Amino acid sequence: KQEVTQIPAALSVPEGENLVLNCSFTDSAIYNLQWFRQDPGKGLTSLLLIQSSQREQTSGRLNASLDKSSGRSTLYIAASQPGDSATYLCAGHMEYGNKLVFGAGTILRVKS
Amino acid sequence: DTEVTQTPKHLVMGMTNKKSLKCEQHMGHRAMYWYKQKAKKPPELMFVYSYEKLSINESVPSRFSPECPNSSLLNLHLHALQPEDSALYLCASSQGRWVTEAFFGQGTRLTVV
Questions:
Q1: Low-confidence spans in chain A with pLDDT less than 50
Q2: Which one of B42, B88, B100 has the shortest CB-CB distance to A89?
């Protein structure tokens, strides 16, 4: 059974700091890896999708990498802002069928 | 437009009620999903429809009944729910098999009393 783990579970940083969120998965059968943001009580906002053939994707201050051989993905947030405070979830797209397996998330708080 | 619209936003229902959750997307996506999310937990897959056919049912109790009337609409019919079914129900869509960036709606907050 595919398991996705996110470290750390929670993170509190001062505004302006660069930070890294980690995601690891047990099964290399993951096809793509997607990072989401979730604000309290809200739905999920897609941040970045890294396809199986890619190693990295960038959007603004966000950069995500994927290393399928080691079962790891990282989300790098540059120059963090209080508006970045949210829960960040990574999810692996399973290779067979349209199925997302989620990690438990990292709760990020950026202090002003 | 990457919008998935869910209605209603909030729903309170009794254990003997029948209600439905609705989800709509106009991105031409051919895969649609229902996820359930309990507080402080990640979303858990319930159902997947691919090209209007049910392709995955994650052993969900029959009191939850999905329906995909067409490629833009997805319903979740609810009947005889239990208080432990209270959760945020999320709908998502993606272009289809293999092209899989998933887009989520804002969810329906369901409370069963």
A1: none
A2: B42
